[in-house]
Amino acid sequence: MVLNQIKISARSGSASGGKKTAPKKIKTKALAKAPKKNIAIKAGKAVLSEISQAQEPLAAKATTAIKFSIKHKIASGLKWTLTAIVFIFFLITANVYFGDIKSLANRKIADFIPYPGVIVNHKIVLLKDFQNDLVAVEKNLKRQNIPYTEKDAKDSALKGLIQREVIFNLAKQQNLTVSDEEINQQLDPFIEAQGGLSKTNELINDLYGWDVNMLKEKIIKVVLLNEKLAANLKNIDGSLSEALFPDYLDQEIKKAKVISLIK
Q1: What is the DSSP letter of 178?
Q2: Of 153, 174, 214, 255, which has the fewest CB atoms closer than 10 Å, so is most exposed?
Q3: Pair 174, 92 in one domain
Q4: Residue 230 resides in a domain
Q5: Which range of residues forms the domain containing residue 67?
Q6: CA distance 38 to 40
Q7: pLDDT value of position 243
């Protein structure tokens, strides 16, 4: 009976101990989807990176194009501005030389812009100096009721200018000068006789169209240098006397190299 129990127990033990449990199935759907999501994210990031890299050169090119366009517009604007300035300057210059050379407007322009007028023995004399001489010549002719043409007045002004410059050149060659004191010694009595500087300027302007400073340079200085050159003539050539100075000066004027830009 005991043996029967043991057998029964042994059977039940072998039945319970030898029973095989089936392995649980692992859910693989979530594991399968995870790698696919990672791949999609990586692919998206790669695409975005490529788009970003592609956009960078496009943005740089657009910026470069804008900068070039701005520079081109500025350069074009400057070019047209300079062209307009040159054209206007050309018109003004043409009017000064070929228009009424002694008009107040052209004299103001010549005062501002140092236009060359005449070249005497390689020295440039400004156009404004010739204009001032021309005004003085015409005033003098009108005052004496002498009929004249515009060419006559210009020729007379040019002759006086050349003579003055030749005297200046000869004085320089011979180291002859005139001081301000010497000039004032000649001018002061004249100013006093007119009743002061203001009235003297009015008189000089009426007679010549000048002021006192022009009178000093164009007349008084020239007269004093002329006297010194005449007195110094013997030192240049012992056979020449002071009385022969006018002939000597005429010869020097004829030998002068003159280029006139006056039309």
Answers
A1: -
A2: 255
A3: no
A4: yes
A5: 45-98
A6: 5
A7: 83
